[in-house]
Amino acid sequence: NWMGTSLLVMFGFLLPLPVVEKLLISVALIMFCTGFACLLRRGREDAPVVLLAVPAFGWGFWLHMGFYNYSLGLALLPWGWLFMAQLLDRSAGDSRTTKRAAAALCICSVAAFFAHPIAAIAVLTAAASMWLGHSRLSIRHGLPLALRLGLPLLPLTVLWALFVWMHPTGGHSRWGMQRL
What is the mean predicted confidence (pLDDT) over 105-127? Predict the structure, then answer.
């Protein structure tokens, strides 16, 4: 939950905070809508009609209530899914495109981790489901795809493991009415 706060503080020195808050909301909505537009238009000439409903999903209760970190993580999800789909695309034989998609997936997944832990879990879950869907559960097809998806997601996996290891689930980390 660091990204939204960091951006608000950093740009709060340059602009008034209400303006920075509106810019952050606008960036989250634009990233969410353009990410889904790129994901849904992938390989098509015309835009599907469902793109008209995407802004309604971006402007939800969480963004309205001020959960900016969650909203930024949600805005990064379609981009992560798009880069994963580019990595798994068998027709894209260009190694430069694959390397760009891998670097973009690595950056997007780490940014999602710093935005919100749920976004990071969603990126890892999507990678696992895409791998299972594309690999046909054979060593010959599954291992190269696992490496293709696993290497860009290695920093996210390490960050998530450190996060879980540094925050034990003992009694001191649970909230109750006494602590409030």
Answer: 86
